Automatic annotation (TrEMBL):
Ketopantoate reductase N-terminal domain boundaries: 3-120
Entry-linked Pfam families: ApbA
Species, as recorded: Eubacterium cellulosolvens (strain ATCC 43171 / JCM 9499 / 6)
Domain of life per record: Bacteria
Lineage of producing organism: Bacteria, Bacillati, Bacillota, Clostridia, Eubacteriales
Protein's name according to its UniProt entry: Ketopantoate reductase
């Protein structure tokens, strides 16, 4: 199972580290100073008071033929269209948009290709201490990682999250701007996972 994390801020770095530690083949795509830091030091994170390095591959470019089972898109909203345009040139079929935006998903598909979007919202927060990630998953009852129903691909992604011990839920209706909507306002079909103890 190959996973690409497109964007290495707090959210992308946390999910990338968790997935890599769980044994998945994870690549992270970065630019600018963050790319320089990752190339020099690797993806560093705090775990139980200890600084560790996640076993991820660091990429400065993505070739069109580089195919991933899932792409976690974790950029800021003002970077979203540019990122989707770039991913539109890539052959990966499942782009998990972990971005809060009021735009509709069909607008995103018009940029990257129809049927490629899996709507999602992260359940995590934190920051950086220099180049070291200091972040945590939010408790399941507050804000689990939320996946929107698509065409069954979200169930495979849910299995990955479960194995990684990331709390998640699958909702029938995933409105744009999900962060502005209370979690219990969407009908939840599947909820599972317990917080990964590495991040307590």
């Amino acid at each position: 199972m190959r996973i690409l994390v497109f964007g290495t801020g707090v959210i992308g770095s946390l999910y990338g580290a968790l997935l890599a530690v769980a044994g998945y083949d994870v690549s992270v795509y970065a630019r600018g100073r963050r790319l320089e830091s990752l190339l020099q030091d690797g993806l560093l994170y705090k775990s139980r008071g200890t600084i560790r390095k996640a076993p991820v591959k660091v990429l400065s470019k993505i070739a069109p033929e580089d195919c991933y089972d899932f792409v976690l898109l974790t950029v800021r909203e003002n970077q979203l269209h540019t990122a989707l345009e770039e991913l539109g040139q890539n052959s990966s079929k499942a782009i998990v948009t972990m971005v809060n935006s009021l735009e509709t998903y069909d607008r995103w598909e018009a940029i990257c290709g129809k049927g490629r979007i899996i709507p999602a919202f992260p359940g995590a927060g934190g920051g950086f201490d220099g180049s070291v990630l200091d972040a945590a998953l939010t408790p399941r009852l507050i804000q689990p990682t939320t996946l929107g129903k698509t065409d069954e691909r979200e169930k495979e992604l849910a299995r990955i999250l479960r194995r990684t011990k990331i709390p998640y839920q699958i909702v029938s209706l995933m409105p744009a701007g999900y962060a502005d909507v209370m979690t219990d306002s969407c009908p939840s079909d599947i909820m599972g996972g317990q917080p990964n103890i590495l991040w307590r």
